[in-house]
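Researcher: Next entry: 2-oxoglutarate and iron-dependent oxygenase JMJD4 (Knipowitschia caucasica).
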Amino acid sequence: MFSKRFTEEWKCRKQWVTEDGKPNFQKLLQEFDQTPVPVANCNAKEYNANPKQVMPFKEFIQYWKEYIQNGHSSPKGCLYLKDWHMARDFPDHNMYTTPVFFSSDWLNEYWDHLEVDDYRFVYMGPKGSWTPFHADVFRSYSWSANICGRKKWLLYPPGQEEFLRDSHGNLPYDVTSSDLKDKNLYSHSEQACQPLEIIQEAGEIIFVPSGWHHQVYNLEDTISINHNWLNGCNIDIMWQFLQNELSSVQKEIEEWRNTMDSWHQHCQVIMKACSGIDYSEFGSFLKIIADSRISFLNSCSSGDPSNYPRQTESLSSLGPYHAAFDLQRVAHTIESLLCNEDFKRLDHSTMSLQPETLLVQIRDTIQSTRGQHVLYQE
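Model: Predicted structure:
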């Protein structure tokens, strides 16, 4: 947990919050008014999540005001504005700055490069709104900053979620449900440790490591900013997650393996539909990360900061040592890809990643920058 000192100067903490620490509805309406936002109903279950709708921001704020006036209840249910790409929708607002500890962010760097998506979100919800049990996308890290209000987090260390699966192998929707005491349905639940329970105060930032399943409650009317992110320290966890996802798909459609020539390609298609990425796009992801660091280190070698590529702004503050570390981690992951039987079966001619070529470029770049003392001063 990072103290509120890290968020004190953020514009959103000054402008979105009233003097008594509540959401500043008037200011928020001035900024966002008719903006369409995604809203989930916390009182309804759709598979293992809440059903979502899109509504004008103004309509959600009107609902929220009425919800508070009605003693935090509504016939519409408990609605929660979540997964809103506010930073992408309003790039000039600059309502907050990513703390340096979280700035090595390959995931958002990749999507910024493609200019189609990101994993930066704003959440706004009344007291009682909550998020069901889950682990973050691609087993990424996440950080979450409370702009106002308080949250309660229930977190399980990686691996403990296996004890919480039901007889069909599914994870629970709500880890506080009495259903988990049903030994016929949840035969291993008693073996799970007690969750780590954390109360997050206004202004504080929580860091959630890869693979920690969690469930989150808003104890008050709350606004938060959340990022999912990956970098060289957990890329191997993402790669293992993708291998597990593909293995699950292969087991599901194993009976069709000998009846179709394109079975392996179909597995990749299904995997992408389920998890949002396939092996080919993972390769593209690694290439874009590597290319930016190669360009950055070459710019460092030339001594001309104006040559820094646009997508590597954070690298200029993290420096060449960090860029070299990133390249080493990409190289390690590519070497693992080249040993993977399912990756070998892909049509590499259609991929942007040419793994052997990129490995040579990475090694040459690191060797060259070392030789020119960019990384190591004599």
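Model: Note for the record: The first helix runs from residue 11 to 15.
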